[in-house]
Amino acid sequence: MKAGIITIGTEILIGSILDTNSKYLSEKLSELGVHVSHQLSIRDDFKELSIEIRDMIKKVDVLFLCGGLGPTEDDMTKEALADVLNKNLVLDDVQYTKLVDRFNKLKRPMTSNNKKQAYVIEGSKILDNKWGTAPGEIIEYGNKKVFLFPGPPKEFEPMVDYYLKDNIAENNEIIVKSLNIAGLGESSVEETIRHLKLENNEISINTFAHFYDTEIKIIAEGTDKEHLVYQVREIVEKLHITFGEHLYSENNTKPKEVLVKKLTEKNLKISFAESITGGLLSSKLTSVNGASKILKNSVVSYSNESKHKILGVSNSTLEEFGAVSEQTALEMAKGLYNLGLCDIAVATTGEAGPISSEKEVGTVFICYYYKDFYEIKEHFFKGSRNEIQERVSDTVITHLLLNLDKKGEKNG
C-alpha cells in the first residue's frame, strides 16, 4: 500500500512553523507497513491545492490531507477535495451541536465563520475530534481512501493514534520490529545486514541513523501471521549473534535509559567530572527515571582553579600538559573517584570552540576510572560547539553501555 501526505498551510512554507505532522504520520504508517511514497507541503491556495490533490490521488492508495479544516477563509482543504471528487459539503447537525455546546461552555460568543467547521463532505465517515473543534473525515474514492486531519499537532497526533490503525488495515498481516545498534555507523550496519541476505518477498529490512545509534527496522508483510512471527524471530536471533553487545535494545529505548537500567542492575554508582560537557552528561542521566539510584554527583570543573582545588589536578600537570590533555583527564577522574562516592568516575575535557585555547577545536579526552583500572580515550569531533558537546556526552554513554563488564587498562 502506497500513501501520500499533503500538509496544507502557508505558515509552513514561510518558515513560521515546523511541519512535524508529516514526520509523525510517516512513522505511524511505517509501523503499519504502509509505504509513504509522496510528501508535499502547499500554501493556502484553492486552485493549487485542487491540482495537487487530483495529481497525487492517482499515484497512491491512500491520501492524507493535514490541516486547513479551521474556520477562517484560508482554510479550504474540504472545499478543494469536494471539488476534486465532485461532491457537496453538507452541514452535520451532530458536529454543529457539539460546536455550539463547546462555545457555550467556554462562555464565548461563536462567530458565524465557526459554523464552517461543522460542514463535511457528503458520504464521508466522520472522525470525531475529541481534542479540538474541526472533525476529521475519511472519504472512499473508488478503491482509494482519503483522510482529512486537522493541522494543530495537539489535535493531529491523538487523532492519528486513535483512528489510523482501525481504518487502514489491509487483509495482510504486518509485523514491525526495531533493533538498536550502538557504537557502529549506519553504513557498517547496513553492509553487514546486506551480506546476511535476510530479506525476501515478505521481509524488508532498513536502517536509520540517529544522533546516538543506528536503528534496524524489520517489516514483515503477508497473510500467515504465525509464519511471519517465526521469520522475524529467526532474523532477530541472527542479528543478536552478528552484532553482539552492540545490539543493546529491541524497543527503541535510548542508550541513556539502558545505561541507567544496567548500572542499577549491577548496583554500580557513577560520578562525572565535566569540563567540556558542562553538566550535560549528568543532565542526560537525570532525565531518566531511577537515575538517583546510580548517579552520585557531577562536578562541573570548567576552570583550571576548580580542577585543582576540587579535583586535585596538580598545577604542574596543568602547566606542562594543559587542561585539554590525557594527563589532566586522568587526574580529574582519579580525584573524583577518591572522593569515595562512586564505583566509576568519568572525566571529560576538550575544545568545544569555536575558538581554540590549547588544542584544535574538536579535540577531546575522556577518562573512565574504576577501582583498579582506568582507560583514556582521545577523540576528535566536528561540528558546532553544541554538537561537539552532544557528541562527547553520547560517546561517554555509549562507551559505558558497551563496556560495563570491561575494566579498561590496569593501573601501573
What can you tell me about this protein's structure?
This protein is α/β, with parallel strands linked by helices and 412 residues long. It has 3 domains: 2-168, MoaB/Mog-like domain (Molybdenum Cofactor Biosythetic Enzyme, Chain A), CATH 3.40.980; 181-249, Alpha-Beta Plaits; 255-410, CinA-like (Maf protein, Alpha-Beta Complex). The chain has 14 helices and 18 strands. The strands form 4 sheets. It has a 6-stranded mixed sheet with strand order 2-1-3-8-7-6, with helices on both faces. Strands 14-13-15-16-17-18 form a 6-stranded mixed sheet, sandwiched between helices. Strand 7 (136-141) and strand 8 (144-149) form a beta hairpin. Helix 2 packs parallel to helix 6 (153-168). The longest helix has 19 residues, at 225-243.
Shape: elongated
DSSP strand count: 18
State the low-pLDDT regions, or none: 408-412
Strand content range: 25-35%
CATH topology of the largest domain: Molybdenum Cofactor Biosythetic Enzyme, Chain A
Which strand order do you get reading across the main beta sheet? 2-1-3-8-7-6
What structural category arises from helix and sheet content? alpha/beta
State the separation between the terminal residues, measured CA to CA.
63 Å
User: In this structure, how is the largest beta sheet organized?
Assistant: 6 strands, mixed
Number of domains: 3
Number of DSSP helical runs = 14
The rounded Rg comes to 28 Å
Overall CATH architecture of the largest domain: 3-Layer(aba) Sandwich
- Helix proportion: 25-40%
Mean pLDDT: 93
Q: In CATH's first tier, which class of the largest domain applies?
A: Alpha Beta
Find the CATH superfamily of the largest domain. MoaB/Mog-like domain
